[in-house]
Design a protein that fits this description.
By secondary structure, this protein is α+β, with helices and mostly antiparallel strands. It contains three helices and seven strands. The protein has helices at 20-44, 108-124, 128-140; strands spanning 49-57, 63-71, 76-79, 82-85, 88-89, 92-93, 103-105. It starts with 19 loop residues before the first helix and ends with a helix.
């Protein structure tokens, strides 16, 4: 009797694909959490930077990993004696209620609270429709 004959053999296809809506939510939440770090750094008077790495060839022709600092662009900007906060999915600005794309607040602390509200809305699934609309425009273009 062969060794394989003793085993319980089956045919299976592994499915590791998550629900696309869940993946979009997780991507948005990760972006919001990064923006919260951007606001915290701005309140301290710093600039939030992340390390990125890429493979390059050096002078000797060897492939080496080079790390660079990259400044993260903020989803908020100062205007009209306050701050406008926009929620983004990738490079696209989300329409929050179907027609408005920003929230106006007075201070940086309010920016952090608005981003926390965006995170709560994303966790609750309230921004799923806005993400779908942004994805639809991206595929139509």
């Amino acid at each position: 009797m062969s060794v394989l004959a003793k085993l319980n053999l089956k045919t299976v296809q592994r499915s590791v694909v998550k629900d696309p809506v869940t993946l979009r939510r997780e991507k948005l939440i990760a972006g919001i959490e990064e923006q919260l770090r951007v606001v915290e750094a701005a309140m301290r008077g710093d600039t939030y930077k992340v390390l990125t790495s890429k493979r390059m060839r050096n002078e000797a022709g060897e492939r080496v990993t080079v790390e660079n600092e990259r400044t993260v662009r903020a989803w908020y900007f100062e205007q009209n004696r306050g701050y406008y906060v926009q929620c983004r999915y990738g490079a696209r600005i989300l329409m929050l209620n179907g027609k408005n794309n920003a929230v106006w607040v007075e201070t940086l602390k309010d920016v952090a609270e608005t981003l926390a509200a965006f995170k709560a809305a994303a966790l609750a699934g309230e921004l799923d429709k806005a993400i779908a609309m942004a994805m639809m425009r991206a595929s139509a273009a």
